[in-house]
Write a structure and sequence with these properties.
The structure holds two protein chains of two kinds.
Chain A (H helix, E strand, L loop, with lengths): L4 E3 L2 E4 L5 E6 L6 E7 L6 E7 L2 E4 L8 E4 L6 E5 L8 E8 L6 E2 L3 E5 L1
Parallel strand pairs in A: 2-11
Antiparallel strand pairs in A: 1-3, 3-8, 4-5, 4-9, 5-6, 7-8, 9-10, 9-11
Chain B lengths: L2 E3 L3 E5 L4 E8 L6 E6 L6 E6 L3 E5 L2 E6 L4 E6 L8 E8 L5 E3 L3 E6 L1
Parallel strand pairs in B: 2-11
Antiparallel strand pairs in B: 1-3, 3-8, 4-5, 4-9, 6-7, 7-8, 9-10, 9-11
Classes of the chains: A mainly beta, B mainly beta.
Chain lengths: 112, 109
Amino acid sequence: GAGVSQTPSNKVTEKGKYVELRCDPISGHTALYWYRQSLGQGPEFLIYFQGTGAADDSGLPNDRFFAVRPEGSVSTLKIQRTERGDSAVYLCASSPRSYEQYFGPGTRLTVT
Amino acid sequence: GQNIDQPTEMTATEGAIVQINCTYQTSGFNGLFWYQQHAGEAPTFLSYNVLDGLEEKGRFSSFLSRSKGYSYLLLKELQMKDSASYLCAVTDSNYQLIWGAGTKLIIKP
């Protein structure tokens, strides 16, 4: 079946611009996670959704970052006033239960 | 604080066996995962341990000792395609995954 998909695969934007990153989880998976990963590092947790609600958003670095999942399926991560330090690969994962997570291919964000 | 430690890089020979260690200090424990990540790709699930002992799955095995805060991933009959980063991650008391930085495994012919 279809796995987790993320769009776009690559995004280059100028400092100060607004970006949206989309994640389509595996159908039926209630849990959805956003991470970001820098080269040579493990994934850094950003936010976790259970259904439509953000169950844990403690990993969002500041108020420029926001994520929604209005219908409990597709999620969008929104970054305002992007900074060069936001450049990373943004990974989305979904899970049918509280453990095994299935990752999407990621969106590589470059802020110039 | 919460911490996951694993070696930064390891090198092994095709056909051999390699053991990648992971030690952790977390607030609570609800399971330990190993993921494989090839360069430029997303992590893929390898194994999950929540009880002490060894879990075997084909050429890969994972061991857990909760009292020691220790796990290892054992890869047998190494193949060139096993060259990748191997990430250790622990689920804490809030069911949040705490990730290590990964071990880059280099396989030489």
